[in-house]
Write a structure and sequence with these properties.
- The protein has eight helices and eight strands; from the N terminus they run ααββββββαβαβαααα.
- α2 runs parallel beside α8.
- About 2% of the residues have low confidence.
- β4 and β5 form a beta hairpin.
- The chain has one domain: 2-Layer Sandwich (Nucleotidyltransferase, domain 5).
- It is 40% helix and 18% strand.
Length: 265
């Protein structure tokens, strides 16, 4: 009780130490191992999703990379064309100006999770720079990691996802990894890349139902975990914060699952 209270510089040094030794990844994996020991992971049926994370940087920091114009933080950008190719945040160089759907353009990162369908626990989590390809690219890496974690390479794996993942290259990549893509079909003025025989299967319907239930993880992370706008800068630190938050979410879910298990005994 008489120890000196940590000051901000000490927190910063310890954050660097956590990054250097991958302590957050080790914690996340330890939580997953515990969940697996309780039989709460299927290891075969997954859902993937992404969410936008607002960076700790303002529009005023988004200036030309070559410093050639008058973008000096005045706050008014009317009549000025800005893009990630020509501009960069002077506060967080890893943040990207990005918008999705009807949302306004903000400096953002993109968080991605792979959920296990049995109880909705997060099996993998990662943060990338925000762009139109990040969700599918991150999904391919995460599901490939899940595939390699299996002792039997022939084990059937399914991956549920929303319409944003319905792209020919993504579906082909899943099939090449022996992963059945239970991706929601996007038929708005186009032909879906998801084969009809997959979309009409019983497992596909189950995956789509499960997928919609697991969005609560992002909701928890943005309200309780404070991932809506991070208070750290740089891709590594934002990724660390996101993974740590998802480990905490898993622990919260596991506490609930443990209580249900006790009540059922």
């Amino acid at each position: 009780m008489e120890d000196a209270v940590w000051v901000p510089t000490v927190f910063t040094k310890n954050r660097e130490r956590l990054l250097e030794h991958d302590a957050v990844i080790e914690l996340f994996n330890h939580v997953l191992q515990s969940a697996d020991g309780h039989g709460w992971l299927s290891g075969e049926h997954f859902s993937v999703d992404g969410t936008l994370i607002q960076a700790w940087a303002s529009h005023k920091s988004f200036v030309r990379k070559d410093g050639s114009d008058g973008d000096q933080g005045g706050g008014s950008f009317k009549g000025h064309s800005r893009s990630n190719e020509t501009h960069q945040s002077s506060t967080d160089a890893d943040a990207r100006l990005y918008r999705k759907g009807g949302a306004a353009s903000e400096l953002r990162f993109m968080g991605h999770t792979l959920s296990d369908n049995r109880h909705g626990l997060i099996a993998s989590a990662v943060v990338t720079r925000a762009d139109g390809y990040a969700e599918r690219e991150a999904a391919k890496v995460m599901i490939d990691d899940a595939r390699q974690a299996l002792s039997d390479a022939q084990t059937a794996i399914t991956l549920g996802a929303d319409k944003g993942y319905d792209a020919q290259e993504f579906i082909e990549a899943c099939l090449a990894m022996n992963v059945t893509p239970h991706v929601a079909q996007n038929t708005s003025g186009r032909r879906s890349a998801v084969p009809d025989e997959i979309a009409q299967s019983e497992g596909y319907a189950v995956s789509q139902q499960k997928r919609k239930l697991f969005e609560q993880g992002f909701g928890w992370a943005k309200t309780v975990g404070r991932i809506r706008q991070v208070m750290v800068r740089g891709l590594e630190r934002v990724d660390q914060m996101f993974v740590l938050t998802m480990a905490a979410y898993n622990l919260t879910r596991m506490r609930t699952l443990g209580q249900i298990r006790l009540q059922g005994q």
